[in-house]
Amino acid sequence: MKKKQAVAEDPAEMIPSESREEEEEENEAPVKAKRSKTEEVVYHPVKLSRSDLYRPPTAEELNQLKEAESLFHCSLLKMQMEELLKEVALSERRKQQIDSFIQTVTKRLRTVPESPEVEVSDLSWLSNAVKVPFLLVPKTTKGKFHMTPPASVDLIGSYPLGTCTKPRVMVDLAVTIPADVLHPKDVVNQRYPRKRALYLAGLAQYLASSSDIGSMLYSCLHGNRLRPVLLLTPPGKDSSSFTVRVHACPPPGFFKPSRFHPQRNNIRTEWYTGLQTTQSESSEPPTPLYNSSVLGDLLPRAHLQFLSAVSSQCSAFADGVALLKVWLRQRELHQGTGCFNGFLASMLIAYLLTSHRISNSMTAYQLLRNTLNFLASTDLTVNGISLAKDPDSTAPSLAEFHNAFQVVFVDPSGHLNMCADMTACTYKQLQHEASVSMEFWDNPTVDGFHSLLMTPKPMIRTSDHIFQLCELVKLQSSCKKLNLLSELMDHSGNYVHTALPYILSLLQRGLGQRIHLLTHSLSPDPEWSVESEAPKHKAQPPLSFGVLLMPELAASALDRGPPADSPKAAEFRQLWGSRSELRRFQDGAITEAVLWDGESMCQKRLVPRQIITHLLQLHADIPESSVRYVGAMVDDVIKTGSELPSTGEEESLLVVQSYDDLSRKLWRLEGLPLSITAVQGAHPALRYTQVFPPLPLKLDYSFFDREKTSRSLVPKEGKPCPAYITPITVICHMEGSGKWPHDRLAIRHIRTAFHIRLGELLKKHHNYMCRPCPTHLDVWKDGLVFRIQVAYHREPQVLRESVNAEGLLVVRDNEEAQALEMATIHKPLLTSTLHGLQQQHPCFGAVCRLAKRWLGAQLFSDDITEDTADLLVASLFLQPAPFTPPGSPQVGFLRFLHLLSSFDWRNNPLVVNLNNQLAATDYTEIKNDFTATRESLPVLFIATPKDKKQSIWTKRAPSVQILQRVVMVAAESLKLLENQLMDSNKIQDVRVVMRPPLDAYDVLIHLNPKQVPLLVQAVDPPTVTFSRGVMAGNVTQSGGALPVIDYNPVSLYMAELREAFGDLALFFCDPHGGTVIAVLWKPKAFIPMPFKTSQVSARSVVVTGEEANTVPNVEAILEDFRIMGKGLIKSLEARTEKWSL
Amino acid sequence: MAPSKKKHASGQPCIIPGGFTVLSLQFSSDSVAQHKLYVKEHKVRAEKSSHRPLDRTLFVLNIPPYCSEGVVKELFSQFGCVQSVELRDHPGSFQDSGPKLSRFFKPVAKQGFRVGYVVFENSSSLRAAKSHPHDVSLVVCTEQRPVKTGVQKWIQQYTESFINPDKLQHIVDSFMEGYDKRKEEEAERQRKEAEQQQEDEEGWVKVTRGSKGTKGRPHSEAANERTLQKEMRKKKRKELLNFYTWQHRNTQKEHIADLRKKFEEDKQRIALLRAQRKFKPY
């Protein structure tokens, strides 16, 4: 207890001996950390002893502290990066393994037996067990080939440079083909690439017999079929720890670099097509890609030398490259055809170092930052860069490179464009990622480290819409249609990569202003066994394209083109084909235009889909059936309306308009004793986030009973439950005045008087049916019900005040006051703030609706309340790092699931910066308060500008156990959904994630669908429907009898169950048409408790000797479930296999 | 229940340690399961309320939610005339609920299991109840006395929630009248007390104890706090901060200590993150 006192006096003045211990523990933190992994890890505020804090600093320590403070906005970042580097670096043990394996492989390779010389096309010397890793189209080419031991075997690439990182450790081994196998003229007509493939096949045949090698696969470098490689893994259990990639190369300088000028031709049309042509060599089309792929084989040693020279100058080079590689990998840019791989990353940093844009003394952190900054600000598709210091005269100029390639980054020799196969779209994506990352980095409120380096950005969660080309073989006909023979020749027949740039530019043109960015998946390097033929070009996974939408323009149904008489009109017509038509607009202009289908918002959101399928069909001969558009598949679950499908935007708008009208009318009312100071909406429907917004209803009066005194309808016994009418809460603040009493009961009566008076006035002036109650006033207007609550701003204060026994006026917070503040202050404020957010981000509401639909379906809606869910979704829009704000409901929903499942709720507060009111200092303050009092705070902590310390929205729920389950289910749902969305083969049923697993519950109460008023909202549409007293037709503005308001037997039953059995069991139900109530016993309730008068509810006594203990009277409880839900319950399913009755 | 069943032959009351008699209660005659009510005479030394006379009040535990006060009254009428029934969420002493409220203004009662205080007219009924055999159940819902539950009950509740606005207005008016009257009385009392403290003609002041609520100055916790703070501020303003060398040195020291603290905090955070394997990027 002594310790506690000390803390109270002065937090720094701790008992020295104790804090010493802590210090020591910290020093051996890594060891301890490992030990305590299984324990619950909790972050406690640091306690340093006074003597530690105030001991005179040494110069070294001072420097360390200074550096940590000045270099990074938080020294934490520096440490985080160091830790990250430790995670990806290769361990010494691993390096030894690699070295020894390389030695054995090298030894083996040097002893390859010679074989007699044969024609290149003669494959008889190869045994059947090994195939040539090359697509032999056309079948033959000239030349002689024979196997001989390699001239040399060298390590190249990232491993000797020290930039090799985990996972997927690749060690590159270059095997030099001896000069006598090759001929200087082999450059032409794929002779060299074929010899290279043959040589690899020869090596594979020889190595196959060796026991030193685990498995052998063919692959090709960056998906380029001209550059096959052989993948070797060590035998035994290390087989997955690293891979050796064997490249075959010509001897350095064997071919003259000038032969590979991007405008030279090295594949003759005559040879390729097999047709006689009379073209001379000079008129043959250039083959820049073929040239650069052959040239690429000549240079790896030179590149390695260059990079080693640079890296020896700069100590942080390897670390910087490693960080950049992690960054690229998280963005899925690190591998595949046209990727920005680790080699390019090192080259880029080398470029920045040699051009003195960054200095040799910088740290890894600064290298990364400056590289990203350079990427963000430089467009290599227009202004290429070159590493060549003084290129020889034969080297092509940058302009020549730009003519031949989309992205230009020239290597130190000046002849090779290292980004030859990168598409402009990929570079734009890279640039976009870099600039977005820089933004997050500069923003002190974002955890830069986490969002830049730790969060994966898979395409499905990054892009707003996604579409896939499933049957890639269709691209063959696109090449024909687009007339791409010479390009096809240059790509050596790879029609997928030939057509891709053209399709991209076509879509870019067609989508124009609607999109921010168009990205595509990089097809992964194929890998196949040495015993099988090289896979066909179509045998790769479907090409996926991602689209980042511009929120304002993406959904517009009209593409307005140039005036009919302008010269651009022809171009426009050419692009759109028959869809383009002349239209006259209201401003008198007659222009070409394309009008897309789409009336409701959810249809309009799919306009990009119409554009894409139309353009692909028209220009690239790709039928609609092979385009799989994954843009709005999830939206189905919140779709309503039979004639016009809608996801609720239109209905919400109607509600908001009706509310605005009511609010205006309230303001204008005359004859109230006090004036109205504010009318505020406090219902999710008024911020566009109600899952199923209330619909205006027309009633069938004959369906109901009547209540005579107030001309109201009453549900009839024996009939199905009438349609549920949601009361839309509106808070009406009254002017403060000395006339308000200072007493809680009196205030309530005065409020009632106001309800009555407001009702009278609304009836008199506008003929609305009203029903005043002590707590609210229901107004029947436009087929909707508004529930007006009068509020007096001092009431919470009055509720908190009380006079104690000594006559002292004390102010004590209590639940009643909090609930009132929540209803009259916080909820209206949240509603108006989120309403504003919806105006900025049109799909905010839809994301909320999807998220809440999921929570409801998974039976979590009582624990993660509507307001909490809305705030969680709002955080996705306000702090999207590392993404951009969601542009479609689907991507927003996926990120919501990701947030739920991956956020570290235990150790971090989720800060939702509504209206951007929080500054960086507030963030630190929130975080510090949070860590200091973590134990007493809600498990799911959400801080907002108005609520920095308490997390009022999540105070009641969820509990730890429920949150754990939410996290688990969210992770599972996310995995399932992403697989479904990205896998073109699976049958699509996105509703799978909306069907809760019910096997975890103890009792299931099945409800009679007749008495479930919201049955139509159920996840799986019901098979039977009931008439619920609603008629089709136009809704009358006002008048008529008052409908049945807020009568839902299911929620009434749930409330009764919770009140009666809340301390014995948990009750779950889907509020949107769920027909099952799931009951889970609380484990604690079943432990026998000693008999106490305050704890006998629903329990029976068991007497053993003189002791009386109580246990729940389960039999009677189950009977009570039936009695209390009479008429509503269909059956009761007690899963007694889990517990005994 | 198994052991106690064996111990007591049928027709006998079942009494458990603690002095409670066990009564069975079932919803209707064809119910299979029964709830157990635990009854005992109400015995509290401190309470001398006329609402719960000691010798005639039966204390009942575990009354199911579908038993309203009326139902309980009828259930216990078989032991003798029942004078009144009081149902509560928790056992506790009788509380005066202030001015009388109409049912529309009463806080909504919780519909859980409740405890009851049943007051009989005769104390003999009390004994009858306590000696009731435990295997003869009380039946809540019979043909003469149907108890509505489920959908029927909710429809009834919904129908009963209506009130004529004029009637409601009347309730409000009469309450406010009463409130105003109470206010006036209070004001009158205060005025009188204040008058008493005035000087009389001869300049004498009558000093009385008075009640504490009548002080001229607002007497509240917040006000006390404010005065305290004001004084603290005054004290602080008088202090000089950069006067002595040691003060300057101290601020520097504080700065370094701050840095160190932050550094240590970060270090600890890292250790924690590392323990959670939070640095594995993929």
UniProtKB/TrEMBL annotation, chain A:
GO CC annotation terms, alphabetical: chromosome; CURI complex; small-subunit processome; UTP-C complex
GO molecular function: RNA binding
Nrap protein domain segment(s): 171-312, 316-455, 462-620, 635-839, 841-995, 998-1131
Any one Gene Ontology BP term: rRNA processing
Function comment: Part of the small subunit (SSU) processome, first precursor of the small eukaryotic ribosomal subunit. During the assembly of the SSU processome in the nucleolus, many ribosome biogenesis factors, an RNA chaperone and ribosomal proteins associate with the nascent pre-rRNA and work in concert to generate RNA folding, modifications, rearrangements and cleavage as well as targeted degradation of pre-ribosomal RNA by the RNA exosome.
InterPro entries: NOL6/Upt22 (IPR005554), Nrap_D1 (IPR035082), Nrap_D2 (IPR035367), Nrap_D3 (IPR035368), Nrap_D4 (IPR035369), Nrap_D5 (IPR035370), Nrap_D6 (IPR035371)
Annotated region described as Disordered, given as residue ranges: 1-39
Cell compartment(s), UniProt: Chromosome; Nucleus, Nucleolus
Principal location: nucleus
Key words, A-Z: Chromosome, Nucleus, RNA-binding
Domain of life: Eukaryota
Signal peptide start and end residues: none
Family statement: Belongs to the NRAP family.
Alphabetical list of Pfam families matching this protein: Nrap, Nrap_D2, Nrap_D3, Nrap_D4, Nrap_D5, Nrap_D6
Species the sequence originates in: Perca flavescens
Protein name: Nucleolar protein 6
From TrEMBL, chain B:
Molecular function GO terms recorded: RNA binding
Record field: compositional bias (Basic and acidic residues): 182-195, 218-231
GO BP annotation list: ribosomal small subunit assembly; rRNA processing
Domain of life: Eukaryota
Cellular component terms per the entry's GO annotation: CURI complex; UTP-C complex
Domain RRM: 56-154
Keywords on record: RNA-binding
Region described as Disordered: 182-232
Database matches in Gene3D superfamilies: 3.30.70.330, 6.10.250.1770
InterPro entries assigned to the protein according to its UniProt record, in alphabetical order: Nucleotide-bd_a/b_plait_sf, RBD_domain_sf, RRM_dom, RRM_Rrp7, RRP7, RRP7_C, Rrp7A_RRM
Family as reported in the entry's similarity comment: Belongs to the RRP7 family.
Name of the protein described by the UniProt record: RRM domain-containing protein
Species the sequence originates in: Perca flavescens
